[in-house]
Structures are given as C-alpha cells and as structure tokens.
Amino acid sequence: MQRLIVVATLKSPHGVKGECKLFSHSGEINHLKELTAAILRFNGHERQIEIEHVRGTGKNPIAKIKGLDSPEAVKELGGAEILVERDKASKLSQGEYYIADLVGCRISVSETTRGVVVSVWENSASDLLETKLTDGRVVHIPMIDQFIAEVDIPQKCIHLVDEWILQ
C-alpha cells in the first residue's frame, strides 16, 4: 500500500493574501483542518509544506500555505496535489477505498485474472475503474454493487460478479 495519500488539490487563489481554494478528494474537510504539514506535488516534483490554516465548509475549503503570499504565487501552483501520511487522511467507512489502493488491483472473474486497474475516474454517478484487460482492450467498470462482488485490498484483487461486465 502506498504510504502517502492525495487528500486535496489546489484550485485557485482566494483573496489577496495568498490563500487558496482546495478541492477535498474525500469530500470531508475536518482532517484537512488538523494538518500543519504535508507534501505538495506539482509537475512531478514534491516538497514539504507548512499549512498555516484551513477554514470553511463543504468540499472546497480555503487554506493558507506558508510561503505562498500572493494570488500570483497560488495561481502558479493550480492543480498541485496535497499528500499526507495515510493516518492523516480522511478515515474510511465500510465499502470505501483510497484510490491509491484500487490502482494496480487485479480484476478477476471466477478466480481468473482478466486485467489490472490502471486508474480511477471520479464520476458523479459512480467511480469508474479504468482497466487494461489481458487481451489489450481497455474497459471502464462502474464501482457499483451490481458489478463488483468483492474488493480485497490486502490481496490487491477486485472480483467481478460476472464476465459480461468486461464486454
């Protein structure tokens, strides 16, 4: 399992003092309000950051990161990801998974590996597992109970209900 989890993305400047709007990937913000340090990943580079405060409600809180003191500085980092240690990320409920844990999982039907999850597309109806099948095709599997029989994160395997889902 990956040690670091992406918890938020910098969206845009807020005000004139270097605050920024965040997008919370979990939809929760209480864990973000407790952060004092994190890793900022932008264009493949990572660096340690200090978080002065996070405020607001909803999926888009406002944050102040030490050293970002103008709207221009924030704008340059639009799209940067905030990563934290797994224990500082939002706690999972039953049936919830970190995207980082789903990527790389084998997709199986009746104990036969049929492919590997290469990415997860967040969608309003349900997340989609972008899966490269062993025959080279790429399919998108909705992450819903009608299609998914079991998710076994320790074994890195997602079992499907039936073969037809891969057509």
Automatic annotation (TrEMBL):
Q: Which GO terms describe its biological process?
A: ribosomal small subunit biogenesis; rRNA processing
Q: Which SUPFAM superfamilies match?
A: PRC-barrel domain (SSF50346), Translation proteins (SSF50447)
The reply on keyword rRNA processing is: yes
Give all residue intervals belonging to the Ribosome maturation factor RimM PRC barrel domain.
Answer: 101-164
Q: Where in the cell is it found?
A: Cytoplasm
An annotated GO cellular component of this protein is: ribosome
What quaternary arrangement does the UniProt entry report?
Binds ribosomal protein uS19.
**Written domain comment of the UniProt record:** The PRC barrel domain binds ribosomal protein uS19.
- Job of this protein: An accessory protein needed during the final step in the assembly of 30S ribosomal subunit, possibly for assembly of the head region. Essential for efficient processing of 16S rRNA. May be needed both before and after RbfA during the maturation of 16S rRNA. It has affinity for free ribosomal 30S subunits but not for 70S ribosomes.
Protein name, entry field: Ribosome maturation factor RimM
Lineage from the top down? Bacteria, Pseudomonadati, Spirochaetota, Spirochaetia, Spirochaetales
